[in-house]
Automatic annotation (TrEMBL):
Signal peptide start-end: none
High-level lineage: Bacteria, Candidatus Gribaldobacteria
Organism expressing this protein natively: bacterium (Candidatus Gribaldobacteria) CG10_big_fil_rev_8_21_14_0_10_41_12
Domain NYN: 9-142
Protein name as it appears in the record: NYN domain-containing protein
Protein origin, superkingdom: Bacteria
GO molecular function: RNA nuclease activity
Length: 175
């Protein structure tokens, strides 16, 4: 498989976080960004998030790691739980970028079947590289599409956050 030079990734931030959390590990976002760049030649990494003021330090760290943050206004449900549904914004951005010829191929990071139509669209246009599922419970709507699918948990050794126990440079095959 030849990897093209100008590839973008579209990440459902909540799905990424919750997927790793459900598997009992914390993602090192800086290592993840390096891995995306090295493995898939990702030039632009969009991460779609609900804007919550108390997470401003996290947002700064994500930007420092090389992510482009796209915020969605949040609302609270009846129980007071914050909701920031980014699905439509992610789909729209990917489709606009495709038609404006901003990328060669796209990577989608989510386990959510709501992205099945986007994945099908990108596949039909020859512009889908891979779907990366943060959860081992990836939606059947994505799995049934006969697409390259990578479960992020298979890369856990390379990207798990380790506070105070840093690996030696290159020990995880990233720069």
């Amino acid at each position: 498989m030849t990897i093209k030079e100008n590839n973008f990734v579209y990440i459902d931030g909540a799905n990424l976080y919750k997927g790793n959390q459900s598997l009992g590990w914390k993602l090192d976002y800086a290592r993840f960004r390096i891995w995306l760049s090295e493995k898939y030649n990702i030039k632009r990494a969009y991460i779609f998030l609900g804007m919550v003021a108390r997470y401003k330090d996290l947002y700064t760290k994500l930007q420092e790691a090389g992510f482009t943050l796209v915020f969605k206004e949040t609302v609270c449900d009846d129980t007071g739980k914050v909701k920031g549904n980014c699905d439509a914004a992610l789909v729209l951005k990917a489709v606009v970028d495709f038609y404006e010829k901003k990328f060669d191929e796209a990577v989608v990071v989510s386990s959510d079947g709501d992205y099945a139509e986007l994945v099908d669209f990108l596949k039909s246009k020859g512009a889908l590289m891979v779907v990366i599922s943060p959860s081992n419970k990836c939606s059947y709507l994505l799995r049934k599409q006969n697409i390259p699918l990578l479960y992020l948990d298979t890369q856990r050794e390379k990207m798990e956050f380790r506070s105070g126990k840093e690996k030696a440079p290159d020990a995880d095959e990233t720069a």
